[in-house]
């Protein structure tokens, strides 16, 4: 009798441990927004100094000029359809271009 109660108690505990618990609803963090850029203190890559180049056609010589004038440590050209790491580097200048190689955005990252 005692063994039967022990088995029943053990089975009950195992089943209750497997019971579903309600998880809190996921937080809605909204759409992704990259770290701020421009004239604020977060502009470690110097993107604010070269914003006037948005709309120009990208070339290697323009890329070198952007790197030099911004004072960034590295330059990354981001083209549509390519994969890139998501690691954020404050000293890296990201230059986003469209299919026609027109610069659409310049920021840090």
From TrEMBL:
Lineage: Bacteria, Pseudomonadati, Pseudomonadota, Gammaproteobacteria, Oceanospirillales
Keywords: Signal
N-terminal signal peptide: 1-19
InterPro entries xrefs: Prot_inh_I78
Pfam family membership, one: Inhibitor_I78
Name used for this protein in its record: Peptidase inhibitor I78 family protein
UniProt-listed PROSITE patterns: PROKAR_LIPOPROTEIN
Residue segments, region Disordered: 21-45
Domain of life, source organism: Bacteria
Ranges of Pro residues composition bias in the record: 23-34
Ranges that cross the membrane: none
